[in-house]
Amino acid sequence: MYLIKVGGGTAINLEGIAADLALLNLPSIVVLGANAIRDEVAEKLSVATEVVTSVSGYSSVLTDRSMMDAIMMTYAGLRSQRFVELCQRQGVNALSLSGLDGAVVRGRQNRGIRVRQADKVLIKRDLSGKPTQVNGSLLQSLLAQGYTIVLTIPVLGEDGVALNSENDDIVAALHATLRARRIIQLIEAPGFLDDPSDPETVIPTLGRVDLIDREQQSSGRIKRKLMALRKLFDGDPVEVILADGRVAQPLQQAMQGHGTYIRVDR
After folding, report:
1. Residues 120-143, mean pLDDT to the nearest whole number
2. Which residues, 6 or more positions from 239, have their beta carbon under 8 angstroms from its beta carbon?
3. Strand 120-124 to strand 113-117: parallel, antiparallel, or no bridges (unpaired)?
4. Bridging pattern class, strands 94-98 and 113-117
5. Predicted local confidence at residue 237, as pLDDT
6. CATH code for the structural domain at 2-263
7. Which of 98, 158, 234, 254 could cysteine-pair with 243, CB 3.0–4.6 Å?
8. Is residue 110 within 8 Å of 175, Cβ to Cβ?
9. Cβ contacts of 118 within 8 Å, gap of 6 or more
10. Whole-angstrom Cα distance, residue 188 to residue 247?
C-alpha cells in the first residue's frame, strides 16, 4: 500500500496525479491538502486566516468555528470532490472521506497553543488536535474492494466535534496503523531544499540525524514538517520521497528518483 500526501497549493498538478494513480495500480490512500482554496474561500466569507507560532517555534492555523466551516467546504468538499472527479475520469475508482466519516481518524483536542505576545506568554485554544486513532479495518476493507481513498480533514474529536489537524500528523498515524510500503509527499518544490529560496539546492537524501539537526535549526511550518517526518521513522523502516507535485507526471517522477529520498533503518 502507498500513502500519498498531496500539498494544498494552487500549482499542484492534480490532473497529473490522477493519471499517475491509474498507472500505479496499487492500493493507495491520498491525503489531500487544500490550504490555498481554504484561504480563498475564507476571505470570501470574511473569515480571517490567523497563523500562530508556539513558543517552541511550530506554526499552525488557528481554527475557530468559522474557519472550520471553511475547512469543511474546501477540504472535505470542493477540493476532494474535484480530485475524485479527476480520478474517475482516469478510471480510478476513488472514494472521498474526511476523518469524520466512519470515525476514520479520531483525534485529541489540543489543550492550547502557548504563544508569545510582547512580553507575555498566552494560551490560545481552538478547534485543532492531533490524530490518535485510525479505523484501519474500514480503510483496509475499502482498499480490498479496489477503492482509492481520498482522505481529508477534519478529524473526529473525543466529544464528537470536528477538529483541524496537520496532514503530516495524519500520514504518520495512518502509517503507524497500516504500515505503508512507501510514502510519497508531493509538494510545491523539487524536493527538500537546503536553501528554501533556491530550487537548485535539492538535497537528494536525508537520514535520521539530518532530520533531527534540521528540525532543531528551523522554525515555522518547515519545523513542523520535519518533526512529522522524523516521527514516521519511530516505527518500522519506511521509504519516504519528497517530490515536485507541479510537474507533468508527479508520481512517476517521484518513483524514478526525482526529489529527496529518506530512509531510516532502525
Report:
1. 92
2. 181, 182, 183, 261, 262, 263
3. antiparallel
4. unpaired
5. 63
6. 3.40.1160.10
7. 254
8. no
9. none
10. 9
